[in-house]
Every structure is written in structure tokens, then in C-alpha cells.
Amino acid sequence: MNQKFDGHRLKQRNTIAEIAAQAGVSIPTVSRVLNNRPDVAPATRERVETIIRQSGFVRNRSANALRKGSSGIIDIIVPDLVNAYSIEIVCGVEEVVERTELRLALSVSHNDLRYEQQWLAKLEDGATDGAILVLAQGQSERLDALNRLHIPFVVVDHRGDLGPDVPSVGSTNVLGGRLATEYLLSLGHRRIAIISGTPNIRCSQERIIGYRAALEEAGIPIDPELVRPGEFTQQTGYEQTCALLSLPQPPSAIFASNDAQAMGAYSALHAHGISIPDDVSVVGFDDISIASIVTPALTTVRQPLVEMGRVATTMLLSLIAGEPLDSMRVELTTTLITRKSCAPFRSAP
Length: 349
Fold this sequence. Notes:
The structure is a single chain. By secondary structure, this protein is α/β, with parallel strands linked by helices. The chain contains eleven helices and 13 strands. The chain has helices at 16-23, 27-34, 42-55, 84-97, 113-123, 141-148, 173-186, 202-217, 234-245, 259-271, 305-320; strands at residues 2-5, 73-78, 103-108, 130-137, 153-159, 168-171, 192-195, 227-228, 253-256, 281-286, 299-302, 329-332, 335-337. Helix 4 packs across helix 11 and helix 7 (173-186) runs parallel beside helix 8 (202-217). The longest helix has 16 residues, at 202-217.
């Protein structure tokens, strides 16, 4: 069961994790208060009890809510710390964790399965309460191993397909691809290229689906030469834009699958003396911080990366507390942010 969110529906019900976040304490502390344990400071107990009363929390929901042997640590593994994509998700995770007494342990996979395996080996001693995996392999040995170790986890985006029982957070990538393409169509562009992201990542595939759907609805044949393969890197944006410019009939608009690619497209266009947006319009995806300060400011599809981190952490805290999730799959809404990198189509000089 999938569920699409605007980012606020998770706050509709009160859980042990949410009470802990509101009180600024750990989940074990809330559990101790609920079970009338004596090892809680009077001021802390009073603060937690007040929030419990105000929230209408039912105390018997706390029975066996916390795994035994809590470490007080949440692990997160990201592909890198170079791309702003990973950094913004980590910021969202940290915002939630800092309101508790839990600690955040950060690891980097470098997009290498060996590093993921090493990370997993470190978790086998049970020194974690739960894990968040960013762009992890779908249905991989790592997810199976976490299940065997009884370690709660949530996946943010992913490579490949996830089963219905894998908790995950993403965004409406198909919608984002449609929004970007429809906007360029509304400006009169007909030769619209797309630079795709890493092929085996679901979000990359879905952005192409949105792109194709928008063109098909407009009755515009899809030109295979305008669908360029690549990775979510600035280098891909540069190389594929150069390839597009070498076509007998270059595109009048480029939809980059992320903002890093869009920056590479900017570099290639500038190197060829092509003006943005007078000669070629460019749209990105993600809305990372640099998008609003480059020249011209980048029109892009905003993916709520920080909120994805927040939601994933909230889901994980609920799983750690033994509470059921409203949905195993949460998709946050993407929106188009129009700036200065697009202009109405005009015939080539």
C-alpha cells in the first residue's frame, strides 16, 4: 500500500517516538515513564507526563514497545557526502534525532557494495536501534540481513524494486518528470531532451516515465536521440549536453534529472557560447541550495529532501517502538519551482 503525503499527515497520530521528540528525550525515557520506572528525573517525568496527557496517548500501547538492549544509536548510510542530495536528507534525519537523546552514526557507501557489506558487519553486534539506508540496493542481501538481525530500517529512495513489506520514503518522481516537461511544452518547446540518472535507480526511471507521458499526451513523438543515458553527476550533464549539441537538430530545451546534471549542462552551454535561456532552456530536479544562486537561477522540480529525511526518521522511531506504520511506502509531493533558466521557444538563428 502506497501513500502520498504533503509532509504533515504523519503528525496526525501520537506515538511514543513523537512524544519523545516533543519532550526532547529518548524513546527509552518515555518507555520508563509509561512503565512508572523510578530512574527518571522528576522534571523530565513531569514534562513527559504533560505531553502524554495532552496527546491523549493510550498507555497500554507502550507494552513491549521498545526493543531490549537499546543502544541509543541510529545508523544512516548514504552513497556520498559530495552531492547535496545526500547532505539534505541527512539534515532532515538529524533534525528529528536531535530532539531525542539518541545519537546518529553516519556511514558512506561510496556507491560500492563492499562498503555496504562492511557497514552491515558492524551492525551485527547489535550496537544500533535502527537504520536508514539512502539509495540502497532493493531486495538486496543487506535488507534481508537486517531483517534476520531484527534491526528496524527504512529505505530512502532505492535501487531496483522493494517488496511490499519494506518501509520506504520517496517522492512523486513521475509527477515531477511530467511537471518539468509540461512546463517546457507550455513555453512552445518541442525538441525537449532529457538526461537520465543512474539506470537502475527507481527515481531515475520514474522521471523518464513522466517525461514520456507528457510528450505523448501532447502528441509529440519521442526522439530516442534526445533521451540521454547517464549518472546523477555534473560530468554526465556536461558530456551529454555536448552530445546533444552535436546533433543535426539540437534540442531547444534540456530536462536534467538532477541539479548536478543541470550544472554540467550550464557549463557545456557556456563553453559553446550558447545563451541560457535565450537559446536553450534548462530545467533541473531536486532544488538543492545552489539552484537559486547560479546565473541564471535554475528552474527545477523541488524534491523535499530534508522532509524525506524527517519522515524516514519518524517512521524508524515508530518501528523501534514496536508501533505499526500507517503505510509502508510514503511518497512526498514534488513541485515545480520556476526561475530564470527557461524562456519561450524561438526559432534558431
